[in-house]
Amino acid sequence: MTKPGGETTVRTEGKSRGRAPALSVVWPGGFLRVPLGPDVGEVLVGRGEDCQLRVDVPSISRKHARILVDPLTIEDLGSANGTRVSGQLVPPHQKIPIHPGMLVEIGSAVLLVHADPTATPSPSSGGTSMDALEHLTELAAKSDLTLLLRGETGVGKEVLAARIHALSARAARPFLKVNCAALTETLFESELFGHEKGSFTGAVAQKIGYFEAAHGGTLLLDEIGDLSHPMQVKLLRVLEAREIVRVGAVKPRPVDVRVLAATHRDLEEMVAEGTFRRDLYYRLDGLTLHIPPLRERPSDLEALARKFAAAQGRELTAAAVARLRSHPFPGNVRELRNVIARACVLSAGAPIGEVHLVLGGIAMSRSGAPNRSATSSPTSSASASSTRWPRPTATSPRRRSCSACRVVR
């Protein structure tokens, strides 16, 4: 059966496995969950017809990897794109032990072995990109792997980070967020690592930083692409050593923090240009979660619009929904929320219709770059032109200003 992102077929043999552990597989456009057991022996993963776990996507080789059930190990079979366990590349033809909770990357697919007594055999599975993202989020949340959340501005990267924390074993511990774009180089170390009393002018008391405050929990580094080179170096050292040194101190302090990084920037391009450190990029990219823009999620768009309207006691007409679907929403969920909030005010208690929707702002050009566009109001261009002042001509009286009283004569 063909699915978005590829065709996947699973072939299992033997008797019922009951409360067997499960193998979850996620690839772009779909996901799959199948049980494992000692009677399975081994599972061959690849695009070939003779593979027990067949995932027909271009990034996976015909015979990519072999999973042995007892003991639980994985072996890369000399694949073109390699196999990674917890972010580390697996040498070809070597059996690497894995255990429940470990994330395994096979091309563009992600595997997770976990105890799942409710899992049942499934010959094939697929779904939308959001279905795959939701399933991959559940898998990634169970590990401590550093995650890179990517997507356009306003798609909900912070919301996804909060969900990952809530689904993780660290859910009872702190979840803190840092906007890296708002940090200056002079305050970077103090904010993230803390400082001692008297370490600099104005340090009248000891302060713990975000890393210490989030100990045992999760720290979201939002807009990670906005960090300067000196700040990138300091962050890299902490991520590698898992310890911080407060400003004004000499003794390092160990920290146990799960780091999530989010950005709307093209980090690969920044690495190529030399504006983002390559070693920091690979340290952060344990696993990347791409959040598709709202214009590619029409069902989510309508559901979110109705949710925002219902929160204000309003309903959307069919014409309003159709108008929303035709708008590209370069600002994504954040823009949609503002559009509905304006419509609730303009509708004055009535159901929100097409006439109440004020759409516009930043539009996407054909090249993908943002352009300014006028709002959808028919009077916007006229009102803008009517407020333009005529340029002075040679016959226009020249204005003179008195330097003493600043009165225009």
> How does the helix and strand content classify structurally?
alpha+beta
Q: Give the name of the CATH architecture of the largest domain.
A: 3-Layer(aba) Sandwich
Give the overall form: flat
Mean pLDDT: 79
Radius of gyration: 27 Å
Fraction of residues in β-strands: 15-25%
- Major beta-sheet overview: 7 strands, mixed
N- to C-terminal distance: 82 Å
Query: What is the domain total for the residues?
Result: 3
Low-pLDDT parts are 1-19, 116-127, 363-370, 372-397, 399-409
Percent helix range: 25-40%
Count of helical segments?
A: 11
The CATH topology of the largest domain is given as Rossmann fold
Query: CATH-wise, what's the superfamily of the largest domain?
Result: P-loop containing nucleotide triphosphate hydrolases
The CATH first-level class of the largest domain comes to Alpha Beta
Major beta sheet, strand line-up:
1-2-6-5-7-8-11
How many beta-strand elements?
24
Notes on the protein architecture:
- With 409 residues, the chain is an alpha+beta fold.
- It folds into three domains: 2-127, Tumour Suppressor Smad4; 147-290, Rossmann fold; 294-385, Helicase, Ruva Protein, domain 3 (Orthogonal Bundle), CATH 1.10.8.
- The protein contains eleven helices and 24 strands.
- A hairpin with a 2-residue loop joins β9 and β10 (88-89).
- α1 packs across α2 (157-167) and α8 (298-311) packs across α10 (332-347).
- It is flat, with a radius of gyration of 27 Å.
Descriptive keywords:
409 residues; alpha+beta; Tumour Suppressor Smad4; Rossmann fold; Helicase, Ruva Protein, domain 3; seven-stranded mixed sheet; six-stranded antiparallel sheet; 11 helices; flat; disordered N terminus; disordered C terminus
